[in-house]
Amino acid sequence: MMKEDNKNLKNLTNEVGAPVADNENSITAGPRGPVVMQDVWLMEKLAHFDREVIPERRMHAKGWGAYGKFTVTHDITQYTKAKVFSEIGKETEVFTRFSTVAGERGAADAERDIRGVAIKFYTEEGNWDMVGNNTPTFFIRDVHNFPDLNRAVKRDPRTGMRSAQNNWDFWTLLPECHHQITVVMSDRGIPAGFRHMHLFGEHTYSFYNDKNERVWCKFHFKTQQGIKNYSNEEAEKINGMDRESSGHDLYNAIERGDFPKWTMYVQIMTEEQAKNYYENPFDITKIWRHKDFPLIEVGELELNRWPENYFAEVEQAAFTPAHVVPGIGFSPDKFLQGRLFVYGDAQRYRLGVNHNLIPVNQAKGVKGGVADYHRDGAMRTDDNYGGAPAYSPNSAGAWTAQPEVMEPPLDIEGAVWNYDPKDDPNNDDFRAGGDLWRVLTEDKKEILIQNTAADIAPVTENIKYRHAVHCYLADKEYGERVTEAMGLDMSKVEKLSKLSNDELNKETTPE
Question: Which of 455, 391, 502, 410 has its CA nearest to residue 186?
Fold first, then answer.
């Protein structure tokens, strides 16, 4: 699709607008001689081509995006003063990017993997980026393990190939991964396109209202298209025919006017409830049970416009959970705390220090515009704030801080230390996985067992035993069935299940 002002362009120019005489034939010394350096258009063309591919995202490299709107349908102003939620019927423009996680830019869409989702709300108070996945939890809870998880699911440094051995070795050495493994190996491990999956903010965030009262919250977006997933066999066939199956599904739906929609909900937990909760409410590997903290409806997300240019608007889209607006804040979630830095820093490396000047990333509708004191840097594309003061404080009265939007103080207890959540007496890394197993119907349980057995098949037996023990600790039936499917000795699993986590890891690690 081309913009109207580009449709009638006929004449080729160089990079600064001068006419190009020939775009097919190099200037050579004689009809069969070498190319000469003075063929400057050729040099420019080749030099630009050499640099066309920017670094891909380390994770979430393969993705698709669309514009749309968010509409408020229910009043939650008692919890937050964020203007995006200020009144029923209010609409806010959004840009949403979906992705697989482990695959590179050329990966197939229908792979067994979690799906990333990032929603940029262009609010009047600045951009709010809601960064999450299609699962309510994640594999790890400490950002120290983030680079290691990424390396474990990416390519092996020796072979250059994806390695189930590396993947399952890492997963099973961290019991906190068990719930997410159960989700990924279930029938929801391969969504049938992005339209047919729920979206989650995953982390615990905070809301604070106009009285500066804080509550903790989680974000949920439930698909209105209904959940639909692929089996391994269906996905294998689809990937063989169409590696862009999820992209095609989203594009075709928008083009025919069948705009995909999600209903947004929040869960709310008071500070007092958090202090007395039976486990750490800020642990991203855990869930808040809906019976304890019911879903509260907020609004509707609709995607209704495909980007005009994939590279400009999807590949260059940048998101970070550090981008919040007044009324929305952070939490002591250890993984969120690390993401607040690493996401923005990855974009500074990938797109440059001025990536927020790229149109898809620019704030829209902010009264008075952006005024951040940032200056210079590669690819500065605006007037660089002209002659306005570049320092603060200044005597011109320019760009003063706004303390009225500061979120309330958070009381912290305890010494500064490298705390291990496994030492918390309330920590149970297998409760959520067991709860999930027990609510699955029999056919879904069988799918989970078969998917697990197929995925872990190439992995060495010691790691299979480690996972079997985790399943057994989550639920006796779960452990017995996965042990049988992997062809392991049940008596050995029962024996290993009596060990501590450190003892289990030592017992299942070759000398």
Answer: 455
Kindly report, residue by residue over 250-275, the tens digit of the pLDDT.
999 999 999 999 999 999 999 999 99
Query: Pick the catalytic residue: 6, 74, 133, 470?
Result: 133
Task: Give how far Cα 369 sits from Cα of 126, 362, 363, 366, 377, Å.
Answer: 9, 10, 8, 5, 20
Tell me if residue 489 falls in helix, strand or coil: coil
Q: Are 63 and 52 in contact (CB under 8 A)?
A: no
* Start-to-end C-alpha separation, the chain: 60
Question: Do 465 and 493 form a contact (C-beta atoms < 8 A)?
Answer: yes
Q: d(Cα 496, Cα 499) in Å, to the nearest integer?
A: 6
Cis peptide before 294 (omega within 30 of 0): no
- The tokens describing 287, both together, are 């869930």
Q: Where are the alpha helices (DSSP H) in 208-289?
A: 232-241, 245-255, 271-275
CB atoms within 10 A of CB 232: 16
| pLDDT at 2 (0 to 100) | 42
The catalytically annotated residue of 6, 8, 14, 60 is 60
Bridge-based pairing state of the strands 126-133 and 115-123? antiparallel
Residue 135 and residue 137: Cα distance in Å, rounded? 6
> Which is it for the CA torsion 1, 366, 369, 330, positive or negative?
negative
pLDDT tens by residue, 360-401: 999 998 988 998 889 999 989 899 999 999 988 899 888 888
Between CA 183 and CA 173 the distance in angstroms is: 18
Does the active-site annotation cover 60?
Answer: yes
Q: Which pair of tokens denotes residue 60?
A: 């979430």
CA 455 to chain centre: 23
Helix (H) or strand (E) holding 69: strand 63-72
DSSP assignments along 194-216, one per residue: GGGS-EE--S-EEEE-TT--EEE
pLDDT band at 9 (very low <50, low <70, confident <90, very high): low
| DSSP assignment of 337-372 | HHHHHHHHHHHHHHT-TTGGGSGGGS--S-TT----
Q: What letter represents residue 278's amino acid?
A: Y
- Spatial separation of the C-alpha atoms in residues 475 and 388, rounded to whole Å: 64
Phi, psi of 228 (to 5 degrees): -145, 135
Q: How far apart are CA 128 and CA 110, in angstroms?
A: 29
Backbone angles phi, psi at 186, to 5 degrees: -80, -175
